Fold these 4 entries.
Entry 1:
Amino acid sequence: MTHARGPLFIAAVATAGLLLSACGSETTGTATPATSDTTTAETTSSSAKASTTASAPPVAAGGNVTAPGTKLKVGAQAVIPYTLSDKSGTMGVTLVAIEQGAKEDLVKFGDKAKNITPFYLRVKVENLSGTDLSFTSVSLRGLGADGKGTGVIISGDTANCDSSSAPKTFTTSGASYETCVLSGAPDGLKVAAAEYNRSEYGKSPIVWES
């Protein structure tokens, strides 16, 4: 199984979501404190979602896909189409759990993480289409209890949250693997939900709620 490791990345960007992509290079990044720009971006994003009528994307191999704007409970599976370069098919993505980590897990990332509490998004990914989806990867965007971004985006790994890509055997229907997506919130807040807002879901994400 390929592991995409890298340093902590903290930013005020509010546009990262569940990312299905081919991987193979190491993650790099720097730490930047959140700013008020996040609130503006989230307000704009929320307005766009409210004015968009959800419509189902084209059906991909593996069955009907989950419609944009769908809200699921943690533990439920979303069926998501995937196309990138020579990879195409359908994945079942399940947010299995949201776990609060220990602040000590971020010590190695320095002072810019000292006011951040880590949260671990435990994810199960299943190949539904039986096509070659090896070495693809999945990432989620953590949301607060209010359904908005927490103001920070973290990427990387900790000892208790190892981000893994699909193994080379992820080529048959029913094949699955588990991964962890590192998320975070300012101290005193929580990651209570997560969303997928890529591709046709950009204006109307799939959201998993606790």
Entry 2:
Amino acid sequence: MRPRVVATALVCASLVLLGAAPGTGAHAPLPARMADTGGGTQLITAVAPRTGSTSGTLIWWDLRNGRWVPTGSTPARFGAKGLVEGTARRQGSNTTPTGVYGLPYAFGIQPAPRGTSYAYRPVRRNSWWCQDNASRAYNRWTEPRPAHCRAAESEHLVTYRTQYAYALVIGFNYGKPVRGRGAGIFLHVSGRGATAGCVSVPVGAMRRIVTWARPEGGPHLAIGTAGGPTAITRY
């Protein structure tokens, strides 16, 4: 979705905020309290205080010796209209879908940061993301844009030089796209405000995340709220 957002945070501060100080019982690390982490050894959690929030905290974790360990933390921005259960989301609603999603590949206008091992696709002048519900290429990268995918219903990726300097595709509505649910949901660099449904973080954090992600780690992104029906621990 067309994005439209920055600070730094200490990992320990984020853990306290989420009630997830490394330790025991109810205060186990956040991934240990989740219903599903995607099955890999790497996980990103993006948590907002409530569904109406446009900002929150993003932490990336590694599973080491059977225990989830935080590797980094950063402020995050969400959709301008907050968050909504992924299966109930509608395209154009400016909401970020909650749930647990794979990360098919990274991409960027800038070259892949040194040390990147994750699949990284360079953005070219003719790179588009199709959001046209009538197109066979709905919710897919196209290069060039096919005639059946209208430009007015798509993103010309190279024009978002700040946001798409570095990004990861979020696997929302990606495997078997449902028309009208939404297309082009990414983890990308923050712009000047909230997003149109993506998750965004400062550029330095985005570079670190891209180099941290490993194919063998099977990283996933979990998006949710601190409590309620869309609580991240329910996913």
Entry 3:
Amino acid sequence: MTPTPTPTPTPTPTPAARNSWAEFRAAEPALADTVRTRFGQYRHHVLATLRKDGSPRVTGLEVDFRFGELWLGMMPYSRKAQDLRRDPRFAVQANPGPDAEMADGDVRVSGRAVEVTDPDVLARFVAEVKPPEPFHLFRAEIAEVVLTGLEGEELVVRVWRPGVPVRTIRRGPDNIARTDP
């Protein structure tokens, strides 16, 4: 008779780090400054959320950087707020600008949006930003930051994820992708 193997216990998942804007900036200050500057060029950007059926929803919104956080504010009971309350995954793309040039690159931040309900945090935000009220406020927990741009004839993609150094991928006119060490 063969012994019954003892089942391996399932490890308890550890909570993911918060990954605030301040933490991203501390890890990659030059990239964070570039990304923030890029978002600062225009007021409106594009937010992607997930509908109840799992299909994507893309809408416009304004982003705000303050108190070491990336904030997403929206009208009360808007579809995008309802999406984020149900499924906090998001991606926000910086406005590409008035033409196809995108001289300062293409920027995207993705992660989880956590709704802020703390009255003190909301009051502090309202005191500084003076948004139309009522509103929903979400704090971004950053999972990935991507900056895509041109350097000479190469397409250069820089990708940051928490706990990992920036990865740079270059694609030249020969259409062969190379990853920097």
Entry 4:
Amino acid sequence: MKIEESTIVETNDYRVLIYPASRQFTAKESKVITEKLYDFLATWAAHEKPLESSFKIEKNQFIIICVDEEKEAASGCSIDALGGIIRELDNEFQLGLLDRMKASYVENGEIKTLKLQDFKKGLKEGTIPTNIEVYDFSKSFYIAYLSDFLLPLRRSWAGIYVD
């Protein structure tokens, strides 16, 4: 069951799952991802109870899934089912959606994504400037996603890698 965009309230009652791609989606990929997620979420359930959920593609690179757990909590099996559709999309388009060992950041208005080790090395060596903003894929509640999904480097999780 879909949560209509207009009914989303800025509250931490909504669980958020973020799937970051290693690159931006092509127009065709975005269309297929949208269709498959829309179909999946229309029937997504936990213990045969429909989950009120929605999704959006953020910055043409991040899949954001939102679940109203006040009505029905997503269970392990339902999260596994979601993982299945994400894996299917990942295999079809080679997007790196399940790879959490990467960093995405904004430099000069452009989103860049690197392997975490290359990102840390770039910060240490100074090839990545410290005035960047960094995405945080670990946000698990809607309000945290809204306020802290993109932060200046020093205020982000990656701030530990700079002096």
